[in-house]
Specification:
Number of strands: 10
Order of helices and strands: HHHEHEEHEHEHEEHEHEEHH
Radius of gyration: 20 Å
Distance between the termini: 48 Å
Shape: globular
Largest sheet: 7 strands, mixed, barrel
Length: 328
């Protein structure tokens, strides 16, 4: 069994208090049932166990064919699940690709949970210290954006015991549980749009500007609104303007994944450089977004420092006077 590296283990000492909002309050009898995602992440850092035939899963990484597995929560409760690989780059290149867990709706109802039955699971790209550090960095990106706006995907960190039936081996590591798009839409009472090359005028200016400034802040150019690359476009019920909700931050400079490279259209040479990809968003909206992030500066520093030891020199101070404004 391979344990998480000692350096990464220090993460929990600083992050426990910061992540307190992830703990859900006790339900009353009249409350709506919580989802399996919320149930599994009531306390961040709990240990889950996923038991499966890992060799069979990896052999099918190019397909969307599901296999059988069992997920056991921190309290010893077993959930039979179907599991398959998903994604693009990481699906094909990582040692353990991201997987989608599909729960039985009948079993969820029996457990008095909501029938939203899909959750995404992301493990380190490589089974070593660099892989763990990159995963923690991506996790912090998700949590930072969640602090800035509720119109965002939820990501929670767990300890995962990966038990391979084929060879009877076991590995203990960190993993991200990611909210599935179906749950995001249900929670925000929104629908998605399939329209490509959507005009900037149809976007919610302040939310779009916040997303653009945040991507600039973390040094991420691996996204595109027009082709919906690593961005889902949301239309909330009763509101005007389409909202971009970003995901997959592994190519961000803040994450520092060894395989990451900048978007070739930006002309950047390194993921540690920045380019403001404004997508036609107005200057006033971008200025308001910069001020929103600046107001949350200390809160964001606390998140960064708990996981990666970042400080003011790592980019937060550049959001008002960014480099690369010409890169549009």
């Amino acid at each position: 069994m391979r344990k998480p590296n000692l350096k990464a283990l220090k993460f929990w000492a600083g992050i426990g208090i910061l992540m307190a909002p992830a703990v859900l309050p006790a339900q009353n009898e009249n409350a709506a049932p919580i989802s399996i995602f919320e149930y599994l992440t009531r306390r961040e850092g709990d240990t889950l166990c996923l038991q499966l035939d890992l060799q069979a899963l990896l052999a099918k990484r190019r397909t969307n064919e599901y296999g059988k597995a069992v997920l056991t929560d921190a309290g010893g409760r077993h959930f039979p699940v179907e599991v398959r690989c998903y994604g693009k780059f990481r699906r094909m290149k990582s040692e353990m690709p991201p997987v989608k867990l599909k729960f039985s709706k009948k079993k969820l109802l029996a457990a008095q949970l909501d029938t939203l039955n899909e959750v995404k699971l992301v493990l380190p790209f490589t089974n070593d210290e660099k892989g763990v550090e990159a995963l923690l960095g991506e996790y912090i990106c998700y949590r930072m954006y969640e602090r800035l706006t509720p119109l965002s995907y939820r990501a929670r960190l767990v300890n995962l015991r990966l038990c391979d039936n084929h060879g009877n081996t076991e590995r203990l590591t960190y993993a991200l549980l990611l909210e599935h798009e179906e749950e995001l839409l249900a929670r925000l009472r929104a629908q998605t749009t399939d329209q490509w090359n959507i005009p900037a005028a149809l976007l919610h200016q302040d939310q779009t500007a916040l997303m653009i400034r945040f991507q600039y802040l973390i040094g991420n150019t691996d996204w595109d609104i027009s082709s919906q690359r690593n961005v889902v476009l949301l239309q909330q019920d009763g509101t005007e303007g389409i909202v971009p909700a970003p995901y997959d931050f592994d190519f961000a400079g803040m994450v520092g994944a060894l395989y990451a490279s900048p978007n070739s259209d930006t002309g950047l040479k390194s993921i540690q450089d920045r380019c403001l990809m404004s997508y036609g968003t107005g200057d006033e909206a971008l200025r308001r977004a910069a001020l929103t992030i600046k107001a949350a500066e200390q809160d964001l520093y606390s998140l960064c420092a708990a996981a990666k030891g970042f400080g003011p020199h790592d980019g937060l101070s550049q959001i008002i006077l960014p480099r690369g404004e010409a890169c549009l």
